[in-house]
Structure prediction request, 640 residues.
Amino acid sequence: MSTDDHAPLIELRGAQKVYGRGEARVAALAGVDLVIERGELVMVMGSSGSGKSTCMNILGCLDTPTAGEYRFAGVDVGALDRNQRTLLRRHYLGFVFQSFNLLARTTALDNVALPLVYRGVRARERRRRAQQALQDVGLADRADHTPAQLSGGQQQRVAIARALVSEPAVLFADEPTGNLDTERSREIIELLVSLNRERSITVVMVTHEPELAVYGSRVLVFRDGRIVADGPPAEVL
Amino acid sequence: MQMLWNAFLLAMSAIRRNGVRSALTALGVVIGVASVILMVDLGQSATRNVTEQISKMGPNLLFVRAGFGRRGAAGTRSAARSLERADAEAISRELRGVTVAPAASTSATVVYGNLNYSTSIVGSTEDYLEVRSRSISRGRSFTEQERSEAAPVCIVGTTVIEELYGTAEPLGTQLRIGRLSCLVIGVLSDKGETMGEDQDAMILTPLATVQRRLLGSDDITDIFVSAASADDTARVKEELESLLRQRRGLGPLDDDDFFVRDMQELASALEGTTSTLTSLLAAIAAVSLVVGGIGIMNIMLVSVTERTREIGVRIAIGALPREVLLQFLVEATVLSVLGGAVGIVLGLVGSYLAASELEMPLVIAWEVVIVAFAVSAAIGMAFGFIPARKAAHLDPIDALRHE
Ligand SMILES: Nc1ncnc2c1ncn2[C@@H]1O[C@H](COP(=O)(O)OP(=O)(O)O)[C@@H](O)[C@H]1O
Ligand SMILES: [Mg+2]
Prediction:
């Protein structure tokens, strides 16, 4: 599995995803073509059930399309087995979830260090890098706190630090602000924007809020499993 | 190696995070291992106890009694001709390397001052002490004259002294045995209890004293025979039987009307019983160990379900199925091994307490300790496998969506 630095980072061709069969058949994705280049900040919008999460899962190599082709940095993901897809995620992808998904009763520092465990980084180096990542999201002083001792906004920032710590090529965030109030949502978006600008991490993020989507360099709109609008925020919104 | 060490660290932090539940999970294994160790140790201790008691009675000892022995239904003891002193003399004359003590025993109420105590009275010859491995701690033995005259003199066991004298001096006092007033000339040294019988609850007199003054007959109730060594008892037993059959005029078709018991035989019979019992108890305990393993599987399955999201996160950020499998397998094994270690400590402490409480020798079966430990590790692995595999094969999308 060798990546190609000249190929587009993400290249999806005619992707379909079908659930169930017969009466219960649902086409969650009905043919999606999408190219994302390095350094973009893509905002994904669309009504509930339009296929945003399905598409994110495929892009994140957590799921495979029923039909169509997906290339990640030139690598044909469809040809990879489960272990290889896992290694792809381990080395190139970062995830932020709507419901934070931090390990309970585990300190922020240990939560952030988790991806490094699977990369075989030594304990001392893990601590150092986790501490640095926490500092990058402005939570250096909360390293010893467990999720229960942190607010929702702080938890999501710990989750972002966890996604950052392994220096991924892309960060996928499916409704990362879905459980946060407006003020906290804005802070999270601003954090992601600064990561995108300062570290040139590609970010693909789902949001329902047009006032948050304007932070993106590009906006996609899904409807019934297809992309119906694609362009800079000023054009699409 | 690195992967295993990581899995171990992850398992330890998961176990620490769920302290109480981890303890409860391991409890089954703790109890299983502790009871296997306790049962085997107690069983072996009981066997050792039997062996020790028999060697205390004298492993070379045989005794002969009139009667039909085990085939008791064929007739009662009174129906058989009793033994005579001449039988004992013949045994000592005809058999090689034996010491013989004929004895007449009865039981009687013994009175001193205003206290009385019911105990057994044994009249025997000078070789009795040697044959029964007894000795006199204070005072003296019977003189030749006292023996031939059926003198009212006695040597008293320590239990009788405790019951009747307390701390008073027994030597030189007159003790009443039934209607016979008897001079105490000696004290038997302690023997303690063997085979559930207090060997110190007895009074020894010359043979003729019991025969003439207490029983009013010349019958002999037991002939005690000691062989030269424990290995010799089988030969002695055979020779005893043929000699007595001949002396008692039994034809080839007649059943024995006497029986010979030997301590070796008794010892192996008892050891057989206790070791069967030990195996049985150990088997029951082993079942509880397996039940402990099922307990681990059960709680690990609950734990995998509860931690579905955690597993989803791990898989999403790049944990391979085999790494997730290893984490849960190691977790189950560590729990089980910790339970095994605690169980060993409890089992050993239990064995120690039980041995001292039951006044039995402390026997620790180290090989069982090692096996129990190894089995507890194996049980963790075996019963942890199904939950671990379940965790490893979770779909990350479903797992992350799990409520
Ligand atoms: N595992 C599944 N099984 C069956 N249908 C599914 C599954 N996942 C998603 N769908 C369906 O696919 C469609 C798109 O879902 P999703 O991608 O989650 O939408 P969005 O994230 O835009 O709200 C919906 O109609 C949903 O019901
Ligand atoms: Mg969704």
Q: What stands out?
A: Residues 72-78 of chain B have pLDDT under 50 and may be disordered. Chain B has two domains: 2-53+268-401, 82-247. The pocket of magnesium ion (ligand 2) is lined by residues A 52-53, 174 (CB under 6 Å).
